[in-house]
């Protein structure tokens, strides 16, 4: 079998890249280890930057997102018993974010791909990229016990943090940077109306909490928890009690409780691999970098990598120029590192660390107090939250 671009991974990066390339007439095949239902069952991101919306629109998959997504013009920071609103739109000249679940984005892109008759091979086992340092790369995989080979011009590793693409690169050719945080996020989804109509990020001596949502009738809440906590130890009642304790009274009063239908603990990590290109293999999205979810940047960074790589590949096929793919790694990484910095900073300011003592707590509160009362500091937060320019 032969195609122009093999895409490993059918998460948002792989699907978005595949659709943009296909719209441009560039043939591609997606190889996905999991089943379609498994991919759609993962609950993850919820906040999309304008640049991500634009790219989904360019792919032609934005219709339902605009109909059902919730545009947000602000967020609140909670600390010292009070809520403080950051007016994102006023501070950024009218920019907003959209609350629309990653699962929905993935769904829309999968539907679009299927309607266009583009190939995705689900439950592809032992996917392996080969010979990407030369001119004739290929990918092997197994399906239903039978081995297959796809020859191609380029391989794109859109296979997430635990994928095979980054691991296929010789360790001497890649450099990684990492910070693991000493806590996790316990998250739940419940079919109840959200506490308010915007997100609330809360700093509290008991630990961080986040009030988010998926729609006007579905809420997504998180509380910081120790990494070794087990889901079984967190009944819904315990979760709701802990969440309310970490919020100012006015926000806690707005919490509507109900049975959760999803509950999971996610570790927090910052990670960057450099570079993002190895001959004819490119790393994209979580395959190359991870940020803690505090800045809502993971999916948005995946989309930003896709944008730069799409530009590069389009230029290669349209104009026979490799300038864009040559610039991919440095262009993408420059945006990645700024989001890594922002996510690390938000995480550091809002969470309780094992060594946070009373002094540390007061320093966090002083920083937050400065942030919400200084127009310039608020504007810097808002500028990063809505997404830095490309
Ligand atoms: P994904 O989504 O991990 O998709 C990778 C795909 O590759 C497949 N795969 C393989 N396929 C073939 N062969 C192999 N060997 C393979 N190995 C893996 C996998 O099955 C999968 O289908 O990576 P992608 O596409 O780069 O997308 C990245 C985003 O998923 C991620 O950055 C975000 O979810 C992060 N994130 C958030 N990002 C935001 O922008 N805003 C948010 O509000 C936000 N909240 C979050 C988040 C992530 C979270 N968790 C659980 C990690 C909240 C949470 C709790
Ligand atoms: C979410 O809704 O899952 C969400 C929102 C904002 C974040 C992280 C996660 O910063």
UniProtKB/TrEMBL annotation:
Keyword Flavoprotein annotated: yes
Stretches assigned to the FAD-binding domain: 2-343
First and last residue of the signal peptide: none
Superkingdom, natural source: Bacteria
Protein keywords: FAD, Flavoprotein, Oxidoreductase
EC numbers on record: 1.14.13.2
NCBIfam families: pbenz_hydroxyl, PRK08243.1
Protein name per the record: 4-hydroxybenzoate 3-monooxygenase
Species: Labrys neptuniae
Organism placement in taxonomy: Bacteria, Pseudomonadati, Pseudomonadota, Alphaproteobacteria, Hyphomicrobiales
């Amino acid at each position: 079998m032969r195609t122009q671009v093999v895409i490993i991974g059918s998460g948002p990066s792989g699907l978005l890249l595949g659709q943009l390339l296909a719209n441009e007439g560039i043939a591609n095949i997606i190889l996905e280890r999991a089943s379609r239902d498994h991919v759609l069952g993962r609950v993850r991101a919820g906040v999309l930057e304008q640049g991500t919306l634009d790219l989904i629109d360019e792919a032609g998959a934005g219709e339902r997102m605009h109909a059902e997504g919730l545009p947000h013009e602000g967020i609140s920071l909670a600390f010292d018993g009070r809520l403080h609103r950051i007016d994102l739109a006023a501070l950024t000249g009218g920019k907003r974010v959209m609350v629309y679940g990653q699962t929905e984005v993935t769904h829309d892109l999968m539907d679009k791909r299927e309607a266009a008759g583009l190939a995705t091979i689900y439950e592809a086992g032992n996917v392996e990229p080969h010979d990407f340092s030369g001119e004739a790369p290929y990918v092997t995989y197994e399906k239903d016990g039978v081995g297959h080979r796809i020859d191609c011009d380029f391989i794109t590793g859109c296979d997430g943090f635990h994928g095979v693409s980054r691991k296929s690169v010789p360790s001497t050719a890649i450099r990684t940077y990492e910070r693991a945080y000493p806590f996790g996020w316990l998250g739940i989804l419940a079919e109840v109306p959200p506490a308010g109509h915007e997100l609330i990020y809360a700093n509290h001596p008991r630990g961080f909490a986040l009030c988010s949502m998926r729609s006007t009738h579905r809420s997504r809440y998180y509380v910081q928890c120790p990494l070794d906590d087990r889901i079984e130890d967190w009944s819904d009642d315990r979760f709701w009690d802990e969440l309310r304790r970490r919020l100012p009274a006015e926000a806690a009063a707005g919490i509507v409780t109900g049975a959760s239908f999803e509950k999971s603990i996610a570790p927090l990590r910052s990670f960057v691999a450099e570079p993002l290109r190895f001959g004819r293999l490119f790393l994209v999205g979580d395959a190359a970098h991870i940020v803690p979810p505090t800045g809502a940047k993971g999916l948005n960074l995946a989309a930003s990598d896709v944008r730069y790589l799409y530009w590069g590949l389009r230029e290669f096929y349209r104009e026979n120029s490799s300038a864009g793919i040559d610039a991919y790694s440095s262009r993408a990484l420059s945006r990645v590192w700024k989001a890594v910095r922002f996510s690390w900073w938000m995480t550091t300011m809002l969470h309780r660390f094992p060594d946070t003592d009373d002094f540390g707590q007061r320093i966090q509160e002083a920083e937050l107090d400065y942030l919400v009362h200084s127009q310039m500091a608020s504007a810097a937060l808002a500028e990063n939250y809505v997404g830095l320019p490309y």
